[in-house]
Design brief:
homodimer, 441 residues, alpha/beta, L-2-Hydroxyisocaproate Dehydrogenase, Chain A, domain 2, 6-stranded parallel β-sheet, 14 helices, 37% helix, 15% strand, globular, Malate_DH_NADP-dep_pln (chains A, B)
């Protein structure tokens, strides 16, 4: 790795084959050792010019201009273009090896909460240096610069790199985590099928980009709606990345379900465990009270009101977003960001003994008899290594089975509707009515 | 404290004298032991009705209706009205005694970032249970409920109580920290004198309320502008609280100054230390490069460009907010919230050896020859006990002296302008031109 000394990693990222995952891997390792000097870049074949000032006059994002391939540029921002010696801190054993976290929709409100949590160490731990790679649209590029400026001004010691850009093939380079929040909101009168198509196209493109340039074991969390099918489209377009690595976020639903069970039982929410959201992040989702526990007891032993459990509980969980918009005047960006943090932490810290969490994952090999080849929220446990296994010790009754079936049917219908985006032929759309959750776009 | 068992603390808060700080103190202690039962409240003289559901139908904030004094109500929110046994967790030694943190302007964007940081444990530590007491205006009450709902859905284990309200005499009860963010924005054509008057009135009222009902050693951080003089007004109206406990937030300016010095020197921001913001949080503020250090060396040894230090540096720090609004389209809520976190953490964790932080504090007894009886940003160190001492080892030159003098003159003029709010006679306003920082309201 001696080659990396005094050579900007950005120039090393300029690959003869952009799609070589081997090279991508090398680049990840090298970037930890980079020591960019703003003033005295070595004039080698790989030389680059980096602008790092942040005055209003020099308003454009600082750009790495690469002599021999002007198209492939790597953008860094302000103070994050500067010299640092992270290697020394890694060698003392006080810090882990830096990881790259890519975030799409990075100029939006959810990301505005999430990025500062990631940079603070709250998500990956106080010894984990972070590189943030922020993806936005052309329209949001100025706002992305604003976000980068606020991250600069926050002086987070763990935040070592911030890159911003509009091309997923650049922004996703070497990403070990991809948090895909960006999605087009549903226009007036748009059907779910229309939304599936416009956002499906975005997620197909981002899947291809991840496949080409991200770390080969990147973990992907899809937040943009309709998130289950977006995640399916994304993984189908990224055949070199394990399908198991793709998640659709149902954690906010799980958190809301825990809160509602706590309220009904009259206990604090830390006493509620083993809550699963089954299925699609839509109104067909199934918050599972059959397997959930309160103070270690079955929910049905604690909450005797079966009518409430079967009829009101799910509705309360699902209407939460709508009530919130009504009160707060905007969607629940802060608690969505918290639930993304929870979803990541559940994968990077060992699951507490006896408990589990739920996340939308690929169904192949599932032990529940759920149709294969869709992304379905199911109960999982993790050793804290970024991976997970499905929980086997769950029970079903006819009520739970029938509701899971309905969500499964919906996801199979959504899948037929995006066949053109998953490489499986011609799309046929026979979706049921509008199943968007209230308060979501 | 046996009396507290099974008696709602809310009913104990109903005092014969609302202004007795002794009683206030008792109530704080009792509230740790409270075990509210939603369904079977004891029907004593102190009995109360508490509504805890959060459906859209029951849209109002749950209200404690007190039989014998309907005016004095204590509002809790949703799941935070429920049973918990914090005492048991305190007794095992795993958690500290709960503290109450009051926040004004709680429905605004800065608070929307800050509250989740406080609830997560990032500010006061992972073993510090928190009660949040949120103050809003009548107009923002619905939004406050939305904030409380999102806090519920975040399932933070340390967050044990959330109260919302519009009356500072209720919301500030027993507060050990008061983070005063709420302020009226400057209307079109309004002079600084006008802003001083309308916001000064708010801070006079809140000072009186803190004096009456907060913990006698409450720490107060004023964020609402013009924050130095607002803090002065607040402390003058709270004679029972030590004047030393009041702070005006200049930490965002300090963070921005560190970032700009890092950029200019071409080093990462963690190498910059001993930065002071002197004076008013306005364009007369003085970012001090004479005492600041980079990699342990005097800034002037590292940055030889004196013209940049004397002319451009301060401007870059001060124009940051304006550039940010231009790019991001709104003011810097996220990094302001981060700087409030930094300001609190600087008081509750020991200052690193040899370094310091700056905060706007009461000038009486200062060793720098700055006029007494104003709130002025100065360098401080803390043992981590919530208190601080002014740093003696600072040097001055004519340039620094003259600039500090200008900010001092401005604050003395602001003080004359609010004499009617500090109990010092008739206001005389002879303020210089507009010294609001760009990007602030």
């Amino acid at each position: 790795m001696a080659v990396a000394e005094f050579i900007p990693s950005s120039s090393l990222n300029k690959r003869t084959s952009l799609y070589s995952s081997q090279l991508s891997y090398v680049s990840t390792q090298i970037s930890h050792q980079r020591r960019l000097s703003v003033r005295s870049l070595p004039r080698t074949n790989y030389s680059s010019q980096i602008c790092c000032s942040v005055t209003s006059k020099e308003a454009q994002a600082p750009t790495v201009v690469q002599a021999d391939d002007p198209k492939k540029k790597n953008e860094c921002y302000g103070v994050f273009c500067l010299t640092y010696d992270l290697k020394a801190e890694e060698e003392t054993g006080s810090w882990k090896k830096m990881i790259s976290v890519a975030v799409s929709g990075a100029a939006g409100m959810i990301a505005n909460h999430l990025l500062f949590k990631i940079a603070s160490g709250e998500v990956f731990g106080p010894d984990q240096p972070i590189a943030l790679r922020l993806l936005g649209s052309e329209r949001s590029l100025q706002a992305l610069e604003g976000v980068a400026m606020e991250l600069e001004d926050s002086l987070y010691p763990l935040l070592r790199e911030v890159n911003i850009g509009t091309d997923p093939y650049e922004v996703f380079q070497d990403a070990e985590w991809a948090l895909l929040i960006g999605a087009k909101p549903r226009g007036p009168g748009m059907e779910r099928a229309g939304l599936l198509d416009i956002n499906g196209q975005i997620y197909a493109a981002q899947g291809k980009a991840l496949n080409a340039v991200a770390s080969p074991n990147v973990k992907v969390i899809v937040v943009g709606n309709p998130c289950n099918t977006n995640a399916l489209i994304c993984l189908k377009n990224a055949p070199n990345i394990p399908a198991k690595n793709f998640h659709a976020l149902t954690r906010l639903d799980e958190n809301r379900a825990k809160c509602q069970l706590a309220l009904k039982a009259g206990v604090f929410y830390d006493k509620v465990s083993n809550v699963t959201i089954w299925g699609n992040h839509s109104t067909t989702q199934v918050p599972d009270f059959l397997n959930a526990k309160i103070n270690g007891l079955s929910v049905k032993e604690v909450i005797k009101d079966t009518k409430w459990l079967e009829e009101e509980f799910t509705e309360k969980v699902q209407k939460r977003g709508g009530v919130l918009i009504q009160k707060w005047g905007r969607s629940s960006a802060a608690s969505t960001a918290v639930s993304i943090v929870d979803a990541i932490r559940s994968l990077v810290t060992p699951t507490p003994e006896g408990d589990w969490f739920s996340t939308g994952v690929y169904t192949n090999g599932n032990p529940y008899g759920i149709a294969e080849d869709i992304v379905f929220s199911m109960p999982c446990r993790s050793k804290g290594d970024g991976d997970y296994e499905l929980v086997k010790e769950v029970i079903f009754d006819d009520y739970l089975r029938s509701r899971i079936k309905k969500s499964e049917d919906e996801l199979l219908a959504e899948k037929r509707c995006v066949a053109h985006l998953t490489g499986e032929g011609i799309a046929v759309c026979d979706l049921p009515g509008d199943t968007m959750l209230p308060g979501e776009m």
